[in-house]
Structures are given as structure tokens and as C-alpha cells.
Design a protein that fits this description.
Layout (H helix, E strand, L loop, with lengths): L6 H7 L19 H8 L4 H5 L2 H15 L4 E2 L6 H6 L3 E4 L3 E4 L17 H4 L1 H14 L5 E6 L1 H10 L7 H9 L1 H25 L3 E6 L7 H7 L1 H10 L5 E5 L6 H4 L6 E3 L6 H8 L4 E6 L8 H15 L4 E5 L9 H13 L4
Parallel strand pairs: 1-4, 4-5, 5-6, 6-7, 7-8, 8-9
Antiparallel strand pairs: 2-3
Helix pairs in contact: 4-7, 7-10, 8-9, 8-10, 10-12, 15-16
Bound molecules: coproporphyrinogen III.
Coproporphyrinogen III (CP3) binds next to strand 3.
Length: 343
Amino acid sequence: MKIENDLILRAARGESVERTPVWMMRQAGRILPEYREVRSKLSGFIELVETPELAAEVTLQPVHLLGVDAAIIFSDILVIPQAMGCAYQMIEQKGPWFENTIRSQADLKSLHIADPASDLAFVTDAIRIAKKELNNRVPLIGFAGAPWTIMAYMTEGSGSKTFSVARKILYTEPAFAHKLLGMITESTIAYLKAQVEAGADMLQIFDSWAGILSPALYEEFSLPYIKQICEAIDEVPVTVFAKGAFFARELLGKLPCRTIGLDWNMDILESRKLLGPDKTLQGNLDPCLLYADHETIRNSTIEMLKAFGPNKHIANLGHGVYPDTDPDSVRVFIETVKTYRHS
Ligand code: CP3
């Protein structure tokens, strides 16, 4: 069925658009009082993720309340480790925590390849409900973590500034790392295909911890697995967001995906040159800019739009919106993109 506002899909495919489409990473979340209201009635974040009706409800909130051009299914990248047998908790004010880490060949025995039908039905159910409630108003984005970023959490056991446990394993136990990455990749492909089957119109792969690897490690332990995922998905356009991977832009430009996400450290014109003319680019306003006054937000957004040009661009922030951002400042960013016309 035809989606009324399909600007994002057309921009992703490289087709010309009347105006630049816009959404925000982490748009479904704590910036909205309406999200916090739903969340406050539950035991925690994971209960929200695993309750399809409520996950679908908060998925739609930014479409209704902020006017973004796409919804992103409310979930987390850490549902994959859990589906493989490595459960996580989300500790208030602290972030993710894994009771059992995966650090050696022996630990692999506790894992299995995720079966989306049995291990991740709460996500595909949420997608089906969200699609129905969206009623073809805007596209729905599905997502997963990149294998390296998922491995980083499974081995480290929590968030970290350096992920030195995870990174150490790449040097000391490379064969084990490749085995784990292979299992995550296989699980992720099955998971993303199930998301598409449930109704996801496009997909994003988050490599949030790309930037802590050296170029050589990135080329060996992250890119090949992202490539495998891109090769396996030909049903819908795929976006790869490798945060901090400025050093790998030429290689990212060669991935068989449609869109590459840029963070705010990446110069727009330089990125276009390194990535080549074919890819659609997504990004890349500094999320901190939304703490500035409205005039500054407007001017910087227009500057960004001019640098990207009229086509092959999906406007976004360079990373997720920070939870204490004023929703009115977010609206200024979104409205500026939606009213701007390239002359
Ligand atoms: O709106 C959306 O973008 C959809 C939902 C979404 C969430 N997490 C919800 C969430 C998405 C796409 C993610 C992806 C995700 N999760 C990433 C990749 C993107 C990135 O930020 O780099 C990562 C690394 C995670 C892991 C994760 N989840 C961490 C480190 C944390 C704790 C930090 C924090 O922001 O609190 C989470 C929790 C989380 N995931 C929240 C939300 C709305 C906050 C939890 C809450 O409501 O209490």
C-alpha cells in the first residue's frame, strides 16, 4: 500500500524530493513528557520494550507530537544478545548491564543463533501494531546494532568509555571474536528480515562504537559483518550509521547499502567526496546545538541543509537527541527542515 509521505524512502533511493525529509535518532524517548508518562507506569525500560502495544504507542508519539517524516520502532539494540541467551538489564541512571559476559570460546556454549519467531516476537508484534496505527502516514524504520557494537556490550558487560575489555579481545582472541561476530551477524540477519516481513519500510544499522577501533581493526572486525548484513537484505533500503568512523568513510562508501549516517564531527563536503556521489547521506547536526537559542538552531540547520544539497540527504542529528532537550527546540529544528526550499 502506498505511504502518503514517502519522502524518506525516495531520498534513500536517491530519487529527487520536493524537500529534505527529517527524523531524529532517539526521537521516541525521554525528550517527550508523553513518553515519560507511559514509562512511569511500568517496572522499567525492558517492560516497555517487551509490551508490543505500549512500544507501538511510544513509536508513534514523535510522529504526532513532533511531525517527523518517519517513525522508528521503539526497542533497543540489546534485544539481540538477550535473544541469543545473554540477558541484559537496564539500570536507571546507569545504562545497560549484563550479569553473564561472553569472553571466551567456552562462553559461546551458552549462546544460540536467535530465532526471531520465538525470541523476538515482541518486536515484530510491535512493528505490526505500529504499522497499523500509522495507517501509511509515514514509513516505519526498523533497526539493529552492528555486530561489533553488540559484541562490545556482550564482552564488556556494560557501557564503557573505552571498551578496553572488548577491544583487548580483538588482539588476544581474534578467532573467538570472529566466531562471536559470526553468530551475532547470523542472528541479526534473521532478525532484520523478520522486521521487514512484519512491516518495516527501511532499516538502520547502528555501529555506535565504531569510532573506538583503529582503522585496521575496523576493517577486520566490523566492516565485513556489516557488509554481510547489507548483502543479505535486498527488500528495503538500509542505512549504516558508524559513529566516529571518519577514518573508514571511503570503505563505508563501498558498502552495498543506500544511506550512510554521518556524525557531527564529519565535515559534510569532505564526507561527500570520500563516500562518492551515489550514497544518500544522513545527519548530522550536533545534538548539543538543540540547547542553543531558536535563532541559532534555525541558522545552523539551514547551513547544514545547504551543505548537503537538495537530494540524497535525510536530515537528522549526528547522534541520538539528548534526553533533557526541550521539545520546542526539537520542533524548531524539524520545522526549519520542513519549510526550507533549496533555490
Ligand atoms: O527513538 C529511537 O531511536 C528508537 C529507540 C531506540 C532506543 N535505543 C531506545 C532507548 C534505539 C534506536 C536505540 C538504539 C541503541 N540502544 C543504541 C544505538 C544508538 C546509539 O545511541 O548509539 C545503543 C548504543 C543502545 C544501548 C542503550 N540503550 C544504552 C547505552 C542505553 C542507556 C543510555 C540511555 O540513553 O539511557 C539504552 C537505553 C535506552 N534505549 C533508552 C531509550 C529510550 C532510555 C531508557 C529509558 O527510557 O529509561
